[in-house]
Amino acid sequence: MTKRKGIILAGGSGTRLYPITMGVSKQLLPVYDKPMIYYPLTTLMLAGIREIAVITTPHDQEQFIRTLGDGSQWGLSLTYITQPSPDGLAQAYLLAEEFLAGSPSAMVLGDNIFFGAGLGEILKAANATTDGGTVFGYRVRDPERYGVVDFDDSGKVRAIIEKPDVPPSQFAVTGLYFLDETAPGRAKTITLSARGELEITSLLETYLHDGALSVTQMGRGFAWLDTGTHSSLLDAGNFVRTLEERQGLQSGSPDEIAFEKGWISADALADRAKKFGKNSYGEYLETTVKIRK
User: Where in this chain does the record put each Nucleotidyl transferase domain (predicted)?
Assistant: First the structure.
């Protein structure tokens, strides 16, 4: 089976977060003690994905390279792709077609944060699927802001409706998509929406039409945070801080996950700990090495 590759869509203009994003990409803003992009990156890592393309704007790409490097420090291989203009989420599959080279993919939006016990298990299960697509539904209070799943009486997916006036359910589609190798070809058949974008909903509808789309529901105990506004960015930072302060465990740490998966050695993790000096993140990595040696 061809290994699945990852895509992090970290382009866009970030205008909803102006003025703080006028000089820096939204996905490089801090979410408590780590850059935002660490969180979607570790989501793909938890699924077992090691070849990842990071899609950025042309003028932000150098900042991402400085922040993430080539990924080898985590046992990853990172590729950088520029997005000339933000023309919709489905555009990512056209930009990444050469990188994917016929492989299935998992795309995560660069401003989405996922957390929960058992997250790794449901991600690995989605990664193990070979045909069709898998997306994740999350119950929200205000579904009219999202793409919403319409279920029939048997619980089967009937449709995904973008920002409906009357939502058919409370389940929004999150910014995480596991699609098979046909995604780029399907994306080429999509026409621009009324707002001039290649909508991800339109791409998912092609899978749904073929009976090849499944929705995994994230139930209680899971958190899905979209950090696209000032208030949601602050909420995400407070959420991560509360978890880390209460539990003494990191979330969204590519260093820890790479070590746990055996992608880097204890010596390599110790070197990473030294890099961060005596801040709390470095101290955590240093403690992790000592405990697990």
Answer: 5-240
Integer CA distances (angstroms), 120 to 63, 115, 139, 152, 162, in order: 29, 9, 19, 28, 28
Tokens of 198: 């290649």
Q: Which residue has the tokens 């590729």?
A: 79
Cα angle for residues 214, 220, 223 (degrees, 5° grid): 85
Question: 99 is written with which tokens?
Answer: 């990188």
Read off the pLDDT of each residue in 201-215 and give the average, rounded to a whole number. Answer: 93
Q: Are strands 105-109 and 171-179 parallel, antiparallel or unpaired?
A: antiparallel
**50 phi, psi to nearest 5 deg:** -120, -15
- The first and second tokens of residue 64, run together, are 């991402």
Nearest CA among 88, 126, 108 for reference residue 224: 108
The mean pLDDT of the chain is 92
User: What letter does residue 24 receive in the DSSP assignment?
Assistant: S
253 Cβ contact list (under 8 Å, min separation 6): 34, 38, 42, 281, 284, 285
Give me the DSSP letters along 75-140: T-EEEEEE-SS---TTHHHHHTHHHHTT--EEEEETTEEEEETTHHHHHHHHHH--SSEEEEEEE-
